[in-house]
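Fructoselysine 6-kinase
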Amino acid sequence: MKAIGFGDNVADVYLHTRTRYPGGNSVNFAVFAKQLGVSSAYLGVFGNDEIAAFIQEELTKIGIDLSRCVQLEGENGYAQVNLVDGDRVFVGGNGGGISTQYPPILDAADLNYLKEFSLIHSGCYASVEPELPKLRELEALVAFDFSEESKFRTDRYLQSVCPFIDFALFSGGRMTDTEIDGLAKRVSEHGVRHILVTRGSQGALFFSNDAPYVGAVEYVEPVDTMGAGDAFLTALLIHLVRSGWTKSQAPTPEAIQAGLQFAASFSAKTCLIDGAFGHGQQY
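Predicted C-alpha cells:
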C-alpha cells in the first residue's frame, strides 16, 4: 500500500513562540500515513525561499518521497498562528503562496507515477480542482477535505469535486445534527458514498452508503490541536484500505467502527505535540 498527498504545503508560523512547523493538509496526510507504516509521498509546488527549503528538508528527513514536486520562483505558502485567549488561531498568511498561484498540473509522467498509489488525498485549499478528473482514471481511492467554510459547500462547488472522489471530509464542529444530515444527503446525491464529518470533542460522524456511524472520543489534555483533523482522517482512511476497502468493495460495518476508534486514538496522540507533527524550527 502507498499513499500520497496531492496539493498544498505551508509552514505554520507560530508568532507567540517564534517557531515554524511544516504543514498543510496534503503534507500532513503524507506524514501521518508514514507514521502509520505506509510508504508515502507528496506531490505539489514549492517556492524557492527559506520556508520552502525548510519544509523540503524536514519532509526528506521523515522519508516522504518528493520526487514529482515542482519548485518555482516565488514565495512558499505560510500561515501565521497566534495564541488568542488560550487557543491557537490562524491570524494571517499569504493564501498558499506560489502553490495556489501556480498549482500543480498533472502530466502523463505524473499520472504514470500515481498508478503506484492506492490512496490519494487533496483538499479545497490546494487549487487542484481542475486536475481531479484525471485522478478518476486511476485505480486509487481519492479523498478530499472540504474544510469548514460555507463556500466549499455550495452545490456548484460540490458538483466540481464530488464526481471525481470517493471520500469527503468536512469539519462540522459548529453544525447541528440536522445540518450535518442535510449536508451528507447533498454530498451523497453528488456521487460520494463515504462522508466523514469531524466534530472535535463531540466525536466524528461517518456515512457509508447512507448508513450513519458515530465515532468514539479519546480525551487528552491537548498541547496543540493543529493537524488533529488531518490525523483522524488519515488514520481512518489507512485502516479502511487495510481492511479491504476498494472502489468496488465497500468497507464493512466492523471495519468502520474499528477504524473510527483507531482514528480517535491516533488523532489524540497528535494533540500532545506542537505543530501538526513536530519538526519545529526557531526563526
